[in-house]
Design brief:
Blueprint: H1 7-20, E1 33-39, E2 44-46, E3 52-54, H2 55-59, E4 63-69, H3 76-89, H4 93-96, E5 99-105, H5 113-121, E6 128-130, H6 134-142, E7 150-154, E8 160-163, E9 168-172, E10 176-181, H7 187-200
Parallel strand pairs: 4-5, 5-6
Antiparallel strand pairs: 1-10, 2-3, 4-9, 7-8, 9-10
Helix pairs in contact: 3-7
């Protein structure tokens, strides 16, 4: 038989195991904290099949990343979606399955259900695209304290751009947003934060 571990060594090993399962700390998060947590809003938009999408009811209790943008966006929107997809694909499947991504189009004129589905599918087929009337989209943005998106003038190469805020909101399982992610956040930071967000605010 092998040598028996001394009681002191056994205690040290057990302490190390317990430490590895310690609850993550807020100070470890990469994303900036919001000054005051934002309750998960209950705005209602439309899914691709035309059925209503109530954000609070359909995502309640899940870690949900919420972003407002449009598929013709040249930089901010595709980079955010690529980083979110890359972060999720780098995590264990059991962790990634607990995360939802909701993309609200601020360009309902061009972002038809087919366009949204095809564009988001390039990043992750599980990403959900929703939209609605300009008034409904503006109400949804205001529900999280964001200014409305503004349609810009015609571009030299045709078409038009839309000015919109660039942050991603992270609504944790306790149904509040404590953290937001600005333009340029690396996918490594998102991947690092996802398990922490699930551990710090696990909900019920």
């Amino acid at each position: 038989m092998g040598e028996r571990l001394s009681p002191l060594l056994l205690l040290l090993i057990l302490a190390g195991c317990e430490g590895s399962r310690a609850t993550p700390r807020v100070e470890e998060l990469k994303g900036p904290r919001v000054l005051q947590a934002i309750p998960r809003p209950g705005f209602v938009l439309q899914k691709g099949d035309g059925s209503p999408f109530d954000f609070r009811k359909e995502t309640g209790g899940a870690l949900t990343f919420l972003f407002f943008g449009y598929t013709h966006c040249p930089d901010v929107c595709p980079l955010h979606m690529a980083n979110l997809a890359g972060a999720l694909h780098s995590l264990p499947p059991e962790t990634a399955r607990r995360v939802r991504v909701v993309f609200v189009s601020t360009d309902p004129e061009r972002d038809t259900p087919e366009v949204l589905r095809s564009w988001l599918g390039q990043f992750d087929p599980g990403f959900l695209g929703v939209t609605g009337s300009p008034a409904a989209i503006e109400a949804a943005m205001r529900s999280v304290g964001m200014p409305p998106a503004i349609r810009e003038g015609e571009l030299p190469k045709g078409g038009y751009g839309i000015s919109h805020a660039a942050q991603i909101w992270a609504f944790t399982p306790d149904d509040s947003a404590h953290v937001m992610y600005p333009w340029g956040v690396p996918r490594e930071d998102l991947a690092s934060d996802i398990p922490r967000l699930l551990g710090i605010w696990p909900g019920r």
